[in-house]
Amino acid sequence: MNTPLLSRQAHTTLTDQLVGRFAERIRQRLIAPGSRLPSVRECARRHGVSPHTVVAAYDQLLAQGLVEARRQRGFFVRDVHPAAQASAAAEPAPRARPTAPVSATALVRGMFQPPGAQPMPGLGTLPAEWLDLPMLATALRRVSSGTQLEALSLRYGEPAGDSRLRQALSARLAEIGVPAQPSQIVTTSGAIHALDIVTRTLLRPGDTVLVDEPGWSVEYARLTALGMRMLPVPRGDDGPDLAAMARLIEAQKPADRPRLYVTVSVLHNPTGASLSLGHAHRLLQLAQAHDLHIIEDDTYGHLAPAHLPRLSALDGLGRTVYVSGFSKVLAPNWRVGYLAASPALVERVIDTKLLTSLTTPALLEQAIAHCLEHGLLRRHIERVIQRLDAARARTVRVAESAGFRFAAPPRGLFGWVDVGMDTERLSHAMLDDGWFLAPGSLFFATPRPTPLMRINFATTQDPRFWQAVERARRGT
Questions:
Q1: Backbone phi and psi for residue 201, each to the nearest 5 degrees, phi listed first
Q2: Which residues contact 37 (CB under 8 A, 6 or more apart)?
Q3: Which three-class secondary structure state does DSSP give residue 125?
Q4: Distance CA 86, CA 216 (A)
Q5: Range with the lowest mean pLDDT among 52-56, 98-102, 171-175, 294-298?
Q6: For the stretch 435-446, what's the b/e string if a residue is b when 16 or more beta carbons lie within 10 angstroms of its beta carbon?
């Protein structure tokens, strides 16, 4: 469904309509702070209005404080977030610090689409119709029957998380070779919360963290918000460039050397790649030599074969911390995640959890435990994988027939596609037609123009999407 054109029969002027359209997107942060608005000529062509109308609209956005004009460069979106405005007022000369990929919030906000909205190629979730609501409803009824609802609702849960779920998770992790007793598992409010409490436990503001590049834009933004300094490590098909990682570590002063590496071993976001076994062993040797902890984010591991190597399995949770959750494959709004760590670290992690969120909802945790114990989750995931395999095959066929090239072999939920032009410019053009993209610049620690973008195989099977990309590519 395309965004409607501006109307000459409306009660408001074309200028006011254009101002309203941009203002809404800026306030919703669907156009990220720092982004450049289309040139006057390009905007006029796109919306079917005169350049004079665009100039008048941009002047109004400027007067409202939503954009700023940069001499001979155009109009750029200002950060209109209230906290940012308060910070700017209190500190007119902010200290230099790493720049976050601020448009990561736009990517997250794009997830909150109303029911019935057209598929969003840039999002990282499965379509709602792929999920099993009857299974969830049954699980909730089973665990809340009789007197159980009172016990699970009217008191705080266990600090480490529901013991029934931790027992089920221990058995689940054993299937992929990760040796974690229930006492080594801590439940969280989603995988992002798990990443956050481990980072807060191990590091302090100003510490240095190694990250994959390309990598997950939200993780870059999260680490920057915590005051961490990121060192991006080039990520290849087998894993991180270990020679580059060693050089980055050794180039730092001893006090500034990284203490943590955050990575995705299996079905890496955005490339879909997985660590090779040999590469995983060499990475653990490097971590041992340089006293690095490793957070292994296995959020998409449910969609991967169990035999793929996990660092946490090879290391036995010595210096690794395993993180995962169920939001991507089961119930996005339940926000149940977990981590597994060494006995020496787990009590510190529980303390951090208590300080940041107290406990987690035992009712939802027991419902997921029920799904695990009875094989319901396993069968659901098998159905999802079959459906995803078919969607991926169709997407690849349609995309390649339209002339687009995959920069990494198509695997898992995500495709890493080369469209032959700057995908940040493309994303602005496509937004006017109702398509929400994830431009490749989001997936670099220091954003830069790139012809790459991440797509979701579950939501890009429609040839009309690829036709729209081609039209936008020709018109920009």
A1: -75, -40
A2: 22, 31, 43, 58, 67, 74, 75, 76, 77
A3: coil
A4: 28
A5: 98-102
A6: bbbbbbbbbbbe
Average pLDDT over residues 61-81: 85
Report yes or no: 44 and 51 within 8 Å, Cβ to Cβ. yes
**DSSP per-residue letters across 377-422:** HHHHHHHHHHHHHHHHHHHHHHHHHTT-EESS--BTTEEEEE-SS-
Give the residue carrying structure tokens 């221990």: 170
DSSP class of 320: E
Give residue for tokens 């940012």: 84
The tokens describing 111, both together, are 């997830």
Residues with Cβ within 8 Å of residue 357, at least 6 apart in sequence: 188, 189, 193
38: nearest Cα among 327, 149, 49: 49
According to DSSP, the residues that pair with 187 across neighbouring strands are 338
Question: Residue 429: phi, psi to the nearest 5?
Answer: -65, -40
24 close to 34: Cβ distance less than 8 angstroms: no
Q: What is the largest CA-CA distance in the chain?
A: 70
**Bond before 94 cis per omega within 30 degrees:** no
Burial tier of 94 (Cβ tally within 10 Å: 0-12, 13-18, 19+): exposed
What does the alpha-carbon distance between residue 135 and residue 287 come to, in Å, rounded to a whole number? 42
Q: Assign residue 116 a region: left if phi > 0, alpha if psi is -120 to 50, beta otherwise?
A: left
What's the pTM?
A: 0.81
C-alpha distances (whole Å) from 241 to each of 146, 261, 410, 435 are: 55, 13, 21, 34
Structural tokens at position 211? 């990250």
The amino acid present at 418, given as its one-letter code, is D
For residues 326 and 302, what is the distance between their CA atoms, to the nearest angstrom?
9
Reported confidence tier of residue 99, pLDDT bands at 50, 70, 90: very low
Tell me the two tokens of residue 71.
């001499």
pLDDT averaged over every residue in the chain: 88
Phi/psi for 293 (5° steps) reads -85, 150
Give the residue carrying structure tokens 């600090």: 159
Write the DSSP assignment of 132-200 as a string of letters: -HHHHHHHHHHHTSTTHHHHHHSS---TT--HHHHHHHHHHHHHTT----GGGEEEESSHHHHHHHHHH
What CA–CA distance (Å, rounded) separates 429 from 22?
Answer: 13
| Tokens representing residue 24 in the block | 């809404």
Residue 341, pLDDT > 60, answer: yes
Distance of CA 276 to the CA centre of its chain: 23
- At 2 the pLDDT is 45
Spatial separation of the C-alpha atoms in residues 244 and 266, rounded to whole Å: 21
